[in-house]
Design brief:
The chain has 87 residues and is mainly alpha-helical.
């Protein structure tokens, strides 16, 4: 991944997550087994911790289920329903 890409700078500005942390997480999951709930839970915890965003057990469960079942939404609107706040 090209760390000089302005994409990473934009993410860093919007999330306050360092570009280096984003790249480290991305590299760590390049060969991850996303059908393993334990791997997915560890990734969720790591991302939440890095971003300083708490992830409720309910939200974690929904994310794990979506990823491990292979039913991850392919568009931003559907993703925001999973990751966004409950109404």
């Amino acid at each position: 991944m090209d760390s000089n890409n302005p994409f990473f700078d934009n993410i860093e500005k919007k999330t306050n997550v360092k570009k280096e942390d984003i790249l480290e997480i991305a590299n760590s999951v390049s060969n991850a087994n996303f059908s393993d709930p334990k791997v997915v839970r560890e990734l969720i915890a790591r991302i939440g911790s890095t971003a300083g965003v708490p992830v409720s057990k309910e939200k974690e469960e929904a994310i794990v289920k979506a990823i491990t079942s292979g039913n991850m939404p392919s568009n931003l609107t559907s993703l925001s329903k999973i990751f966004g706040p409950k109404r």
